Amino acid sequence: MTTPAASIPVSIDDPVNVAVLAVSEDQLRGFQRDPLGEIARRCGLPLPLVIERVRAMLSAGTIRRVRQTLLANKLAEGALVAWVVPLERLQSAFDYCFEQDPFSGHVVIRTTDHETAGSPFRLWTTLKVPQGYSLERHCEHLAMRIGAPAFRAMPAKALFSLGVGHVRRRGMAPGSRDDEPADVIATQPLELSELEWRVITALKREFAPDEIVRELWHGRAVEAGVTLDEFVAIAQGLERRGIMGRFSTFLEHVKPVAGGERVTRYNALFHWAVPAGREIEAGREVGRHHIMTHAYWREGGAEFANVNIMGVAHSGTDKAFLLEHKAAIDAHLAEAGIAASYTNVFWGGRSEIKPSEISPVLYQRWCEQQGFDADAMREPSSREG
């Protein structure tokens, strides 16, 4: 990683950086032909200044990564997985999932304030496996590797909110929400051609500081073996199919960044058990609250008192403030006539985040490195076909 010039501010509190990050974290939805130019336009700042600041913050570690996100639920089978791991193996299990499993993304150790349903599940990961492969078999493989006697895989049945925006959420008032309920994002995977996979593989790779340039996608088109116009046309076609997430500059969630600053100090996974048949309605109400970075319908099962709506929120201030946000959401659900029979909060501790790999080619290569045939990890219907 290169070191930014000492004269370039890299603090998250610098006014120019605040303006850039308020847009670049989660406001550029879909595929942007010129994402840096769009940030500059929305900020009212010169493009060379935006490029300078993004590059400097990335070099300094203020920004963790810059990349185009994808709605991976449209490209791979995925789930939030909670693991029971003996306390003495918890840290090594965390390290294995983050360092050794390319298909595990978010890796978090979570705790509850009291012994409640699900408290023994301390390790939480997001997991993606390419189409045709078995998520359950992958979990069984990981359970053996990390020494987990039990796990609960919770695929998303619907998504309602996806967008981090830590800077934009700082100081946000509890109860702040959109005028209308959140949209519903479907989770049905789509089939892609070999060319589309080549473009996506190049598209989603995170940018190094020296790649933050005016013509951002030129190098990625070369990597994919197509012209820039072809690259853009394919990316725009994939956006029309609902695959693109957002172009984003990601900040550290908990760890100190440049100068020892912390972007957020607390993050929480909220659980609600709402009446069967009202999951979509409840998820849309939860997802409209601005504090929620993620909101989804997942079935927790008996291990988690049959919760079915979950969501993540972050706070840069204190724990009580985050609980005020949750209380406002609880009250809003009640006002909407959606009675939650149970609710809980899982607090985030140690955490690491990386993009989950979703390429079938990379999955086959990983299986070979692990010493087994990739066919053994396929869904039974895929093996038979």
Written overview of the protein:
This protein is α+β, with helices and mostly antiparallel strands. The chain has a single domain, classed as Alpha-Beta Plaits. The protein has helices at residues 15-24, 35-43, 47-60, 90-100, 135-146, 166-169, 194-204, 218-224, 228-240, 279-287, 319-335, 360-370, 380-384; strands at 28-29, 63-70, 76-84, 104-111, 121-130, 150-154, 156-162, 244-251, 266-273, 292-298, 309-315, 342-352. Helix 7 (194-204) packs across helix 9 and helix 8 packs across helix 9. The longest helix is centred in the C-terminal third of the chain and has 17 residues, at 319-335. It starts with 14 loop residues before the first helix and ends with a helix. The mean pLDDT is 89.
Strand order of the largest sheet: 6-3-5-4-12-9-11-10-7
Radius of gyration: 21 Å
Number of helices: 13
Q: What's the level 1 CATH class? A: Alpha Beta
SS-derived structural category: alpha+beta
Number of strands: 12
Q: Give the CA-CA distance, first to last residue.
A: 46 Å
Overall 3D form: globular
Helicity range of the residues?
A: 25-40%
Query: Total domains, how many?
Result: 1
SSE succession: HEHHEEHEEHEEHHHHEEHEEHEHH
- Largest sheet composition: 9 strands, antiparallel
Average residue-wise pLDDT:
89
> Could you name the CATH topology?
Alpha-Beta Plaits
Beta-strand content estimate:
15-25%
